Amino acid sequence: MLIGNVGLDPEVRYVDAGVCVARIRLATTERGYTLANGTQVPDRTEWHDVVLWRGLAETVEKYVRKGDKLYVEGKITSRKYDDKNGIRRTVVEIWAESLELLSPRPASSQQNPQQQP
Question: Which of 4, 22, 49, 80 could form a disulfide with 26 if both were Cys (CB 3.0 to 4.6 A apart)?
Fold first, then answer.
């Protein structure tokens, strides 16, 4: 479970017979604090790569933009590959199973601006 802010606009593509897949970068921050002896511990931000498929990806494509706050539930996955220089790399991703939009929508985006009353 993660609650964080989207760092970049989603990267969306369609694969195999029109299946939608989206990738987002989600920043989560652990707030800083002060120890009993007065030592300041600063905020710590972690970045997570989140992969969403099908309906979740379509929702992200329509409604999610850089700066939005999201709640994501999913599973951690990792894969290894050799880069072009032969160096072994590991990629860790969150494969989302559910998503909740936490940023309020501006009133203007909830209505079609071309419709007249």
Answer: 4
Backbone angles phi, psi at 58, to 5 degrees: -65, -40
- Position 19, amino acid: V
Query: Which positions ≥6 away from 9 have C-beta within 8 Å?
Result: 65, 66
Task: Flag the least confident range among 32-36, 91-95, 113-117.
Answer: 113-117
What is the β-pairing status of strands 40-41 and 44-53? unpaired
- pLDDT tens digits, 58-87: 999 999 999 999 999 999 999 999 999 999
- pLDDT tens digits, one per residue of 12-23: 999 988 999 999
CATH topology for 2-30+43-103 is: OB fold (Dihydrolipoamide Acetyltransferase, E2P) (2.40.50)
β-strand partners of 72? 2, 99
Cα separation of 39 and 57, whole Å? Answer: 43
Of 54, 68, 56, residue with least CA distance to 6 = 68
- In Å, the largest CA–CA distance within the chain is 63
pTM confidence score: 0.80
